[in-house]
Amino acid sequence: xxxxxxxxxxxxxxxxxxxxxxRLALEDLAIGQELALLFGNAESAxxxxxxxxxxxxxxVKVTEEEPGRLWRVRVRKVRE
Amino acid sequence: MLxxxxxxxxxxxxxxILLPEVGGRGQRKLLAARVRLLGTGTVAATxxxxxxxxxxxxxxxxxxxxxxxMAARMTGMNPEVRVPVGGGAGDIDLAVDGTxxxxxxxxxxxxxxxxSGTVGRVSRFVPGRSACRRCxxxxxxxxxxxxxxxxxxxxxxxxxxxxxxxxxxxxxxLADRVLEYDAEKTTFRTHAVKRDPxxxxxxxxx
Lengths: 80, 206
What we know:
The complex is a heterodimer.
Chain A: E1 6-10, H1 17-27, E2 34-39, H2 42-54, E3 58-66, E4 70-76
Parallel strand pairs in A: 1-2
Antiparallel strand pairs in A: 2-4, 3-4
Chain B: H1 7-12, H2 14-17, H3 23-32, E1 34-38, H4 42-54, E2 58-61, H5 65-77, E3 94-97, E4 110-116, E5 119-125, H6 138-141, H7 149-168, E6 177-182, E7 187-192
Parallel strand pairs in B: 1-2, 1-3, 3-4
Antiparallel strand pairs in B: 4-5, 5-6, 6-7
Helix pairs in contact in B: 4-5, 4-7
């Protein structure tokens, strides 16, 4: 599915806009497609995956790529 | 990308966008919607402020001084919406009727609220499908008589909720039902009603 991977850079965003923009980005995807989300703060990197899971989406992987500075979250859209 | 909403729109409507029944798609529907808001009393003024805050794109008001003041409050709440006074909203998706005037039954899709002393009523009219105000028995049609301003504001809020549901296309809401708010007893109840095919305002021969 790497050819359909969309990267959304939310490094300069804070909650709740990280989640609002994640939801908007997911709306544009078909079921089964994935998004890569980039976060610049630990709070968003923890809260957005929790919220996505609560809403029934599949969080594939959370990686802290640069300690304390950059997190990458991969999510698969499994429902509208 | 990001629902084709601007950065300002995402920030302004963020709480609403997070509602599952709205989202980016619903917000775009609201931004593209055109309504006519009838009346200038507390019911209409309250509904108007909430519709403006929700980002309903164009909200046409009746002509007159009170409408000019209402328009200023609405655009003060949200400068992004258009609030033409004395017509100008063009073809409308919905009439939001806070006048209590039975002469405004029938016609276009409509949500309406009527204050009648201690009791207020709210309903939805879908042309050709659900009951309009004239279809109703007199006891549910209600005569327009002021309620206390905060009770009228409750009606205005209910009217705005109903209008947003119509514009978003979610739920049948108050089609073929009248919601009755009794401010004295502090009760809400709903009455099932039926479209009258012989109604002079919306019936098959109208």
